[in-house]
TrEMBL record, chain B:
Lineage: Bacteria, Bacillati, Actinomycetota, Actinomycetes, Micrococcales
Location(s), subcellular: Cell membrane
One cellular component (GO) term of this entry: plasma membrane
Membrane topology recorded in Swiss-Prot or TrEMBL: Multi-pass membrane protein
PANTHER family in alphabetical order: D,D-DIPEPTIDE TRANSPORT SYSTEM PERMEASE PROTEIN DDPC-RELATED, OLIGOPEPTIDE TRANSPORT SYSTEM PERMEASE PROTEIN APPC
Domain of life: Bacteria
InterPro entries with a match to the protein in the record: BP-dependent_transpt_permease, MetI-like, MetI-like_sf
Record keywords, A-Z: Cell membrane, Membrane, Transmembrane, Transmembrane helix, Transport
Family note: Belongs to the binding-protein-dependent transport system permease family.
GO-annotated biological processes: transmembrane transport
Matches recorded under SUPFAM superfamilies: MetI-like
Protein name, as recorded: ABC transporter permease
Pfam families named in the record: BPD_transp_1
TM annotation in the entry: 36-57, 100-123, 135-154, 160-178, 225-243, 263-285
């Protein structure tokens, strides 16, 4: 809590991918912000640009990705994310690990198989803080205990392939918090884990949030995870922000965008056992043939003629809430079954 | 989902039995691997003989004895004597010194150069890779022996020029090998994880790439030593290598050739045997290592 204003602010992030000569827009005018210590869920289907958004924040984009516009404010410092601003890219690089860190989806490939995990946890901080080997080792053990690895004294010398999936993800989390970052980016960190381990890791995140006072940007396609962990939510579809809210509950109770509503309806619910689960008709558009106006329009139940027009405005009237739809669902829809009890 | 989020199970129940890192050697060495051990014992004997040459050999390798030339094997001269009356056993043992030393040293330098070259080329890719690999192509364009012999001609005889010549030529193989590995590694997610962790590029390359890509190169180095022994012996055989009277297997064979017709086989046979023994031993070690490190060649 060092300064007023948000911890992270992403403004008008547009990113293009060059694929075989064609230039495809993968992110379009994406904006959102994150307060100090806040956890925001970044929700969307595969290919909606969630992971690209995270990678753009860290400046770790694939070589064929070009940021055409985008401004980021992190902890009071402003960065131009657009491709070509070398100086800002360098400043961004210095933030990695210590200001912003990232937890990856697949822990087994995100760890180096030939180096003991303990060393990898403290690799970055060891140099920065000029720790001696023994100090670094102690710190690694401390962190491993913090993320719930008991007998850390032994596990610190283990290799990646000697650990279970849950332990590996704990190691990744330990590495991510080692530099005491203000912001942790999570790229579906529980997707590769089985449900019981997933549950433990989620509890760990909740616990660490309190302990570290770090902001969390949590990418997932699992609304239940968001409900359990996050304060706020941003819904992405085909590289566009559909709906965004600083208050999670309001979106769950009263979704504004038809897409959000459809997402909530297609979430399994214990109260509706035996009934057919809703699924959104059609499939997500590929980047190459995205409609000009609202990208969700072709699949939308409430589609009207003006939905085809470009640049959908924000029609939300509530503070801290954004709904990019010309015909928002509104309070009266009453279809939403998944309610607050999910929390 | 339960309501109490405060009771965090900081000790997860799913901890598997973590293997302890105890024992006298890493697992891959402990695994049953007869080939590796036979090779290691064979090369070990040769290295020990070379290292303790003054104790092993009772005669000087260089002092001629005009009274005892071209003797057959006997108790005092196990391998007999050559045309100048020098003890062949002593010369073979001292020859191991010079030949093995150069063979090993001339592997280390290309190994390191190739490792750095390959990692940089494979990691950065693009025009850096293009330039570096074209440079490697230039070296590869010449037949190995022609280039080595040409370099030794330019540099003059002796251990040092053999070393330089081999280094100049054989780093290419390591560079290509490592480059391939590095290119695969570059796309592994742990590299992105390292970058996300704020670890500098050079540290990623040294600390995270080098140990990953070295395995292949180490196995190759074993067969490269065999190759080097061959090169050194061949050069010396042609009078381009180690300068007489320093004992060396290649020049010994060359000297012995003219006496073969007279029925004096010892001068040629024993150094040749030493070459075969050494090559066989190193090949065993190389194959054994490859097997132990589970690398298909």
């Amino acid at each position: 809590m060092t300064s007023a204003g948000p911890l992270l602010e992403i403004d008008d992030l547009t990113l293009k991918l060059q694929v075989g000569g064609a230039e495809l827009t993968a992110l379009e005018h994406v904006s959102f912000s994150l307060g100090y210590g806040e956890a925001r869920g970044l929700v969307g289907e595969s290919g909606s640009g969630k992971s690209l958004t995270l990678r753009a924040i860290l400046g770790l984009l694939p070589p064929n990705a070009v940021v055409t516009s985008g401004r980021m404010v992190f902890d009071g410092a402003e960065f131009d994310l657009a491709h070509g601003s070398k100086a800002d890219a360098r400043r961004l690089e210095r933030l990695r690990g210590t200001g912003i860190s990232m937890i990856f989806q697949e822990p087994s490939v995100a760890l180096n198989p030939v180096i003991p995990v303990g060393e990898q946890i403290v690799d970055a901080v060891m140099r920065r803080d000029h720790l001696r080997r023994s100090q670094a080792r102690d710190y690694a053990i401390h962190l491993m205990k913090l993320v719930g690895i008991h007998d850390a004294e032994h596990k610190v010398d283990a290799y990646e392939f000697e650990l279970s999936g849950g332990l590996k993800q704990r190691v990744m989390i330990a590495a991510a918090v080692a530099g005491k970052p203000k912001l942790i980016l999570c790229d579906e960190p529980t997707t590769a884990l089985d449900v019981t381990v997933q549950r433990q890791i989620l509890s760990l995140f909740t616990h660490l949030r309190d302990e570290l006072d770090a902001g969390l940007l949590y990418v997932t396609h699992d609304l239940a995870v968001v409900a359990q962990l996050c304060d706020s939510i941003t819904v992405l579809y085909s590289g566009n922000v559909m709906e965004s809210s600083a208050e999670l509950g309001s979106v769950f109770d009263d979704p504004g965008h038809p897409y959000t509503e459809a997402l909530l309806r297609s979430t399994p619910d214990v109260d509706r056992i035996g009934r057919r689960l809703y699924s959104i008709p059609g499939s997500a558009p590929s980047l190459s043939d995205r409609p000009l106006g609202c990208p969700f329009a072709p699949r939308c139940e409430y589609r009207q003629d003006d939905c085809e027009q470009a640049r959908v405005p924000d029609t939300s009237t509530v503070e801290g809430r954004e709904v990019h739809c010309r015909h928002p669902v509104g309070h009266e829809s009453g279809r939403v079954q998944l309610a607050k009890e999910a929390r | 989902m339960t309501t109490s989020e405060t009771a965090i199970p900081l000790v997860p129940p799913e901890l598997g039995p973590g293997p302890r890192r105890a024992g006298w050697a890493p697992g891959w060495l402990r695994r049953h691997n007869l080939q590796l051990w036979i090779g290691a014992v064979m090369i070990g004997l040769m290295v020990l003989a070379g290292a303790f040459a003054p104790l092993v050999a009772q005669h000087s390798p260089t002092t001629p004895d005009a009274m005892h030339t071209l003797l057959g094997p006997s108790g005092s001269h196990p391998f007999g004597t050559d045309n100048l009356g020098r003890d062949i056993f002593a010369r073979v043992v001292y020859g191991a010194r010079s030949d093995l030393t150069i063979a090993v040293v001339a592997v280390i330098a290309p190994f390191l150069i190739g490792l750095v070259f390959g990692i940089v080329s494979g990691y950065f890719g693009g025009w850096i890779d293009t330039i570096m690999m074209r440079l490697a192509d230039i070296v590869t364009a010449f037949p190995f022996f022609i280039l080595v012999i040409a370099l030794v001609f330019v540099l003059g005889n002796g251990a040092w020029s053999i070393f330089v010549a081999i280094t100049c030529v054989s780093w290419v193989a390591y560079a290509r090998l490592v480059r391939g590995e590095a290119m695969v590694l570059r796309n592994k997610e742990f590299v992105a994880a390292c970058q996300a962790g704020g670890i500098s590029t050079w540290r990623i390359l040294l600390r995270h790439f080098a140990p990953n890509v070295a395995t292949q190169a180490i196995v190759y180095a074993m067969s490269d030593i065999v190759m080097n022994v061959g090169v050194i012996v061949t050069l010396s055989y042609f009078g381009l290598g180690i300068v007489p009277p320093t004992p060396d297997w290649g020049s010994m064979m060359a000297d012995g050739q003219q006496f073969l017709a007279g029925g004096y086989y010892g001068m040629t046979l024993f150094p040749a045997g030493a070459v075969i023994w050494t090559s066989l031993a190193l090949s065993f070690v190389g194959d054994g290592l490859a097997h132990a490190l589970r690398i298909e060649r």
